[in-house]
Amino acid sequence: MNGHVKNMHFQQHVERAATLLCFLLLLAVDTTKTVEAGKNQGCDSDLQKTQKLTRLIHKQTGDLIKAYKASEGEMAQLFCKASRSDIPDPNISGLEPSERMASIYTQLQAFSPHLKRVQEQQMDLQPPKSLLLDLIQKVRDYSVRLTSSINNFYHNFFPNLPLPDPAGGPTTLPLPQNIFQQKIYGCVVLTTYKKLLNNISKDMRTLKIKVCTRAR
Amino acid sequence: MMFPLMSSMVVSLVLQLALISPLIHGFTNHLMVTPQSPVVQIGTNVTATCVILNTTEVTADDLYWKINSSIIPKEYYTKINASAVSVTLHITDEVGAWLFCAARSTSHYINPSKDRFLHGIFIKKGYHPEKPENLSCKAMQEGRWISGNLTCRWDSASRQTESVPTSYTLFVEEHPGPIFNVTTQDTKITVRMDVFPHHTSLVVRVVAHNSLGKAESEHLEKEAKEFVKTFPPSNVKVFAEEMFPTSLLIEWEHPIERVYLKLAYQIRFCPHGSHVWRHVSVPEEYTEKDITSFRLQNLRPFQQYDVQVRCKSRRGGYWSDWSANVTQTTPEDSPASKPDLWMLYAGGGEVQLVCKDPEMSNGRITAFNVTIQRSGNDSSEQEVVPVQQSGATWMSRQGITPLRRVSLANQKFIKACATASNSVGTSPKACLHVPSSPSGRHRVEGMKVWSQDGQMFVEWKRPNSSAVSEYVIQWSDRTHTDWQRENGRTNKTAIKGKLQSFVCYNITVYPIRAGWLLKPTSLEAYLEQGAPLEGPSVTRTVPGYDHAVLEWSTVPLERRQGFITNCTVFYRRNDKPPGTYADPPKAMAVPANATSITLTQLSGNTKYEVWVGMSTIAGMRNGTPHTFNTLKHAPGMVEGIVVGVSLCFLFLVLMVIILCIYKKDVIKENFWPQIPNPGESTIGNWSPGYPLQAETPKENCVTGVSVLDVGVCEVKLGFEDDKTSLSLKKDKYLSEEHSSGIGGSSCMSSPRQSVSDSDEGPDLADSTASTVQYSSVVASSGYKGQTPGSQSQHSIFSRSESTQPLLDSEEHPDVLLQRSPRETVFPPNPDDFRPLGGEQQPFCPLKEDAEQTPESDSLQDDTGAPLSSYMPQLAGYRPQ
Lengths: 216, 880
Prior knowledge:
The complex is a heterodimer. By secondary structure, chain A is mostly helical. Chain A is built from 5 helices and no strands. In chain A, helix 1 (3-72) runs antiparallel to helix 4 (131-157) and helix 3 packs antiparallel against helix 4 (131-157).
């Protein structure tokens, strides 16, 4: 067997190897695309669910405020227009999607004790099976699920960015209040929370585009 | 296979023994079975080992096993060592069992402490759980929200026993979110979540578990909304729009707010009351933007529709129940089809034109415009018939409007046309040619009618020679008539009208060719036949001696409830007293159309009960029982007996006569013995000096002892007392009738009947009685110059009052000579001379004689004037 023949055999092996390599590369690319598509599909779905859940809580908070005002009578409009400094800000901060997601999570966390306080105060003011109490409970339950959902989403899409603690440390609740103060406090908490939900809902559309497009 | 298993068991046993050995020193029991309380899967083997502890009184060879109370055979034992023996059992049944290890009593030590050499375990038996199948969960709407209670159910294929029950744990996992779980032994349970997890995925699974293991169902991973069943749409409204007579607008409200669920809707509708629903799914794009209305199209004008709506989550979920019925009528439109014009024969050569609303009436028909054109007449009669909606007549109740009655007399045919009008417009025209005598050439043949599944079907053969454009199938009972049309290619149809069971319908198929009515064909039929409502009543019975003619009335058609297949006449004797067992009735089948029958082979003078049963294919109904008595005698039987007896009597008489004729000599000799004629006696000649004329008839009468010929006596003697004379005559005849000889009859020997039965008193009778025993009859003229010629006229018998006996040789020949052939002869039978005081015939008083007078008279008539008689003896003894 001469060198020419050997060279031919070598060339044939190289060609086969190149074909196999190309096939493997194509397979790898396709697999990556499939994973990305699946992840993208999950992004859309998760954010859509979160958005719908936000709308649901927003709707329920609206119903809650109506019930609250109905229970307080004509004076409710005055209560609700008051402003208080000890209630979290309903605005969402941050520029990056991750920052805004983190801000949403933090704000929701910050409102949770206030909602609990309002519920406690209203339990003293409302009959046990009132619609108001039922609605507060539902808003709280769904808010927990919304928070959990955002947390889950955040960890899925920003696994390397830990969620920050609430700005300014743990949420500070107001000192013991009289009934009038409780009524004002309750209404301001609910209306502010509704604003927050409204902001989240709006922000979700932007985030959906930014996060899920980036994932794509 | 068994060896490695056994070796591993031994190893494990040794290990167990090693573990428990420190403990068992404290036990007083010398036997111990391991494992304790095993749970065994049915169908597998279980091995238990019995170990001897702290004693040398028994060895492994002394041990034996019992399951419940049965000793297990030795072949199931395995001796492990000198102090341990095991047993392996195959578990087949489900009932838990006690397994005991015991020692045989081989020493005096064991017997007192038997309990210490016995140890048992309870084997629990069960099945390994199997995977639950068909897991499904549902969350219902509660108020404005979906309930947080998720109810799940599944099918369990696994069997379980009492000792090893299977439990199920349901896990509901929100993703992301909490996990809820509940456990039950049922196959249905409700998980209570705090709120329904809207916009969250749920993973539901159920785990079946028991002592033998666990099995998990398939995971049910769905969006939470796919488990939801909401309320049906609320406040459903249906609107009719005048501009759109073929559509209805439906509106509804969401049962739940859209932030919770987006719903898909489905509508179903049907003509009012038909329950044949058509379904329409409302496209999602219609409801995407919160639109809650839909327009149903392609409906029939002026049709009442029932509408219902339901909903479910767009992404799966369960359909809600249907909303409540909402009924609405589409607006009116012009009639789109011809009215159904028809005629009914009304009798008298007339037809009644009738009409039904057009099939596509599209509104309420207010009037029919009828045009009638007669044959040979170009002009037509037109009439507008308003439609009465009162429902007062059967026709209006069936939606039939009577138009006009038309006579077919002197007409070859009539042509009738009709249009129907409603508030919007007029229908196309329908025409019908009715000939006075329809052509029979094209009538349908082979018509059949039958019922099946509550419907009546009609089948016929199409006429070969004609092109039939349509058929009208008409059905009528006694009061109602209805019809339906079928196209000309049909030869079989189901009658669409409401037919009643047990009613006889006359089904008629009319072929129609180009609007011309052809000759119909009819059949009678029942939708369903039943037993007749009543049986025939026996109206008349004509009983005979051994037969009876029965007549019964036919049952009215409306009470028959079917075609009569036959009648059966039942009859039985009804002469047994009440309370006793009646004879079984005899049955006699007769044709269905029979109304009378003659029952034969009956018993005479017997009471019979009879009734008639009438049968259809569905059963029989008996009529009212009727009773009658057969005659005591057959006609002619009495006459036969009388004739027979008469014939016998006649025969007897004839025999007597014949006997008399043949034996007349003997009779004559016995009854009329030969008496010597005195006239021929030599005595007459012997005293020629005695004048024959010396004895006058008067003297004879005066003596009163002779019986004279009445006529002679009346003339010559001139009786003073006729009565006495008659009496005597009667007595004489009685004597003739009863006596058998002179003075020999008992009646004659009786003073009253013979000679003393007169008004002359008993003295005479007594005297006669005392002197008669030697009496004899002496012809008064016998010794006084008797003349043969006058003897027949004046035969006189005198009774002597003498007590001296007569000389037979002297007297009898004389008497015999004096007797004429017509004279009654009384032979001197000594037996007839009986003492008066002895055996006497009953006394025959005058009154009785008077009653017998006609008989006597008849006798007189028969015999003519009496030839002789006994005369009373008026005087006493006369010396001869």
